[in-house]
Specification:
Rossmann fold, seven-stranded parallel sheet, 35% helix, 16% strand, elongated
């Protein structure tokens, strides 16, 4: 597909060609015409798929240069670094350094930003908190906003900025809404549901750009919260026949210590910590010591201030928490002659899905999604006295209102396993 198919202006088409864009990416070909037609759009695509370029081109196409002091486009982004990238992308594609655009940052002088706004801007790029603060000072006029754009929505949610997003959307009134995210989950819809127009379009681009790497078997459980992760880990570890030696990765030493006290155990030596935080906690200095002690089944390892560890002869690795950098995950999943029988199980929540997607992009394949065990207790933070079974949770998922979307059939848990001793362990795991 050529750039001409996007029906951009000749100037924008020429600029894109000069910058080396010879053909549109999938998200651009599927979104731009909808955006220019005025439709609300939720676009789900991995990093590098072209989300920013999509809405920058659309905004420049819709922008009418006037002397109006009130902005026409409000773009919400999670942090100052992202704001700078967006502003630079506008200058790059418009080739107009006099473009009436401003980035409202979390730091710096609010008074200077207010003075710039009063002078007149067409496009405002801001963190939700900063935009709300300046709006409450009556310095950000939202009465003329035509399009509200939420960039990196998953990161905005992770940082807990849903409330200012909802308040700003409410203040903008009836406008076009464009939401861009790497993942789709219920928290996303909780943030924007009440403001979306009914005919909104959901555009999903599920591309894996890298070639598949030969990794260990990567399995994943999707869970609602941290406490349910603990419940699941306890549930699985009850099967001592399967889980004879297990390494559990967490992010901090404090989490490792707390997790060790939360796990089911019959003897003091059954659960250990690698280089424990407190001297009276049971632990080891190396994984070799862990392997040698037959009584110890589980070794909890904190990534915090830890060097690489040897996982040879460890049949199961539990990624109880996902790291902040994908490289810390990738270093333990590459298959070789010494670890080819190892299985990696990842526990992820909605807020960790962006990292799941980054890892999947890096390895060029999806983690197989496992069904949660029917007897698993799902923690309900609203009422922790009411314990729900997974069956009840699934019934609730099926009856959710709003714009929540069930997973596509292509993402369903339909994979099978082969034969051999390794398969026996897997089949037991699957039947839980």
């Amino acid at each position: 597909m050529s750039l001409e198919k996007l029906k951009l202006s000749k100037r924008l088409t020429a600029t894109m060609t000069e910058l080396g864009y010879l053909a549109p990416k999938e998200i651009q070909s599927r979104c731009i015409s909808r955006i220019l037609g005025g439709q609300d759009v939720i676009a789900i695509a991995p990093e590098g798929a072209g989300k920013t370029t999509t809405y920058v081109l659309s905004t420049l196409m819709k922008l009418k240069f006037t002397d109006d002091e009130a902005p026409k486009f409000l773009i919400l982004a999670p942090n100052e670094e992202r704001i700078d990238e967006i502003v630079e992308k506008f200058h790059q594609l418009s080739k107009n350094r006099d473009l009436r655009i401003i980035g409202l940052r979390a730091g710096g002088s609010m008074e200077e930003e207010i003075e710039e706004l009063v002078a007149g801007k067409d496009i405002v790029v801001a963190t939700p908190n900063r935009a709300r603060a300046i709006y409450l000072k009556l310095a950000l006029n939202l009465n003329r906003i035509q399009t509200l754009i939420i960039d990196d929505a998953e990161e905005i949610i992770k940082q807990g900025m849903q409330t200012p997003v909802r308040e700003l959307a409410e203040s903008c009134g009836k406008v076009q809404h464009l939401v861009f995210s790497t993942v789709e989950h219920q928290k996303l819809y909780d943030m924007i549901d009440t403001h979306l127009n009914e005919d909104y379009a959901l555009v999903e681009v599920d591309e894996l750009e890298n070639e598949a790497i030969d990794t260990l078997d990567l399995l994943r459980y999707q869970l609602p919260n941290f406490t349910t992760k603990i419940n699941l880990l306890n549930y699985l570890l009850q099967d001592k026949e399967v889980f004879q030696k297990v390494i559990v990765f967490v992010n901090s030493k404090l989490t490792a210590q707390k997790l060790a006290t939360s796990l089911f155990k019959q003897t003091k030596e059954e659960i250990a910590i690698l280089n424990p935080l407190f001297y009276d906690d049971f632990g080891y200095e190396t994984t070799a010591d862990f392997i040698e002690n037959e009584q110890t089944r589980v070794l909890i390892i904190a990534r915090e201030n830890s060097d690489a560890v040897d996982i040879v002869n460890i049949p199961f690795i539990f990624q109880f928490e996902l790291p902040n950098e994908k490289e810390e995950f990738l270093s333990y999943i590459i298959k070789n002659d010494d670890n080819e029988e190892t299985i990696v199980l990842t526990f992820s929540t909605d807020l960790e899905l962006p990292m799941v997607r980054k890892i999947e992009q890096a390895v060029g394949k999806r983690m197989d999604l496992l069904d949660l065990p029917e007897g698993l207790q799902i923690y309900n933070p609203i009422n922790d006295k009411k314990k729900k079974s997974i069956k009840e949770e699934q019934q609730e998922d099926g009856s959710r209102g709003g714009a929540f979307h069930q997973k596509k059939e292509s993402n369903a848990k339909t994979f099978n396993y082969g034969g051999g001793e390794k398969a026996k362990m897997k089949m037991k795991l699957k039947k839980k």
